[in-house]
Amino acid sequence: MRVISRLFTRIAERYLPDAFIFVFVLTLLVFVLGLFKGYNPIQVVNFWEKGFFDLLTFTAQATMMLVTGFALAHTPLVNRGLKAFAKLPKSEVQVIILTTVVMMVCSWISWGFGLIAGAIVAREMGIVHRGKIHYPLVVAAAYSGFLVWHAGYGGSIPQLIATKGHFLEKQMGVIPVSQTIFAPFTYIIVLALLIIIPLANVMMRPKAGEARISLPESILSEEEHAPAAEISPQAVKGDIPPAVRLENSRWITFILGLLGLFSLIFYFAAGGDLNLNIVILSFLTVGLLLTPNTKEYLNSFMGGSKSAYGIILQFPFYAGIMGMMTQTGLAADIANGFVAISSAKSLPFWSFISGGIINMFVPSGGGQWAVQGPIMIDAAGKIGADMARVSMGVAWGDAWTNMIQPFWTLPMLAIAGLGIRDIMGYTAAITIVSGVVIGLGLLLL
Fold first, then answer.
1. Following DSSP, what letter does each residue of 207-248 receive, concatenated?
2. In which element (H, E) is residue 169 found?
3. Is 0.70 surpassed by the pTM of this model?
4. How far is Cα 96 from Cα 192, in angstroms, rounded to an integer?
5. CA–CA separation, 374 vs 376, rounded Å?
6. Do 162 and 175 meet the contact criterion of CB atoms below 8 Å apart?
7. 3-class secondary structure, 42
8. CB 133 within 8 A of CB 92
9. Rg, Å, the chain Cα set
10. Which residues 6+ apart lie within 8 Å of 52 measured at CB?
11. Number of neighbours of residue 419 by Cβ within 10 angstroms
12. Residue 321 to residues 107, 257, 443: CA-CA distances in angstroms?
């Protein structure tokens, strides 16, 4: 594992460009493939333009998730708790294992919660154990835990097909989560990953005595010199203006936090499910309740906002790629190609492989299911394959190649203070290991 990770790390450091350049290469590739499909350049450009704005809502959600999570982590109580938690492991091995497992548990609950919680834990591990651990590997270990999100409570595909009225209900009916998320073949794969992935991460650590890369100085400086609430000259003299009193009042944020808290209580009391908006509202609510005053919360919020530029810039370009992939039929061609070589037994496996490939161009579980789902379910009906297993094959494929698709690393890397080249060598190795585990699980269980 150490040799494999070093090979991929050298390749990533030399040849893997910034995540935005990766978006450009994918855009150009899909554009050219669209021309080979028989569409003229103007048509392909129109497909790109129509898709470009399809993820604006999701872009705003991802941005809010990052910023509210960042602000929550910097409230005094949570910040002290994270630092205390980061002190629990006593060795580099324990740091890697604990970080991976925490991310897996949080991602199983909700992918949004997992990305932010995992990034914050990895960051705190880097601060507390600075100089003693290889920080890029710790961040990669956290990201590797993201693998299980689609097999958990927040999995978009299994939750969608368990909902009455979903767009494929006539073809496959409503499939309860007992046949997908909580089916034996799914939780056995999850348990196998829970054991194998942390061990694989541990095996990639540098040898004793070899140099370790620490958390960037900029992150440490940011923690040590966090912006404090400004004190006006009048306040120093004892003459505090009403505006300053309001900015430093505990009651403003507390009342707003109570509003969010009551909203969450009423929502879950009415049987509401955990989703991205609720995760954001939860982060915002707890952050407001725990912050000392409005001024400090705004300062923390600004700190998180600076880290969100990659999401704001790149997500619309991925939406454009998705538009070209779907409108030209390229995604359908990939799925149909794997369907043609499948049997009832092997279709879940080939759904997984094709899902992994399509995810490189359409890195959205819901968007990918809209493209690939109808094809796979139609094939499953014709050859008598288990539709629940086929659906989970697509879901696992979507989660699998996230390890080498920069799209979902953006919020995590923004908090961790690293670039895609820093972790891709390790996550590429995890892609191989997890691919074997998941593939065998879908074939044999």
1. PTTS--PPPPHHHHHHHHTPPPPP--HHHHTT---HHHHHHT
2. helix 169-172
3. yes
4. 17
5. 6
6. yes
7. helix
8. yes
9. 23
10. 316, 317, 319, 320, 323
11. 17
12. 26, 39, 31
Angle of the 184-203 helix axis to the 92-109 helix axis, nearest 10: 150
235: left (phi over 0), alpha (psi -120 to 50) or beta: alpha
DSSP 101: H
Alpha carbon 323 to its chain centroid, in Å, reads: 21
CA dist., res. 370 & res. 154, Å (int): 17
Delimit the domains of the chain by residue range.
2-224+251-444
pLDDT tens over the chain, length 445 residues: 888 988 988 888 888 777 788 889 889 999 999 999 999 999 999 999 998 988 788 788 878 888 888 888 888 888 888 888 999 999 999 999 999 999 999 889 878 778 888 998 999 999 999 999 999 999 999 999 999 999 987 788 988 888 788 888 888 999 988 999 999 999 999 999 999 999 999 999 999 889 899 998 877 766 655 544 444 444 444 566 777 777 778 889 999 999 999 999 999 999 887 677 888 898 899 999 999 888 888 888 888 888 788 888 888 898 898 889 889 999 888 888 988 999 999 999 999 999 999 998 888 777 788 778 888 998 999 899 999 999 999 999 999 999 998 888 988 898 899 999 999 999 999 999 999 999 999 999 8
Orientation of helix 365-383 relative to helix 330-339, angle to 10°? 30
CA dist., res. 87 & res. 308, Å (int): 28
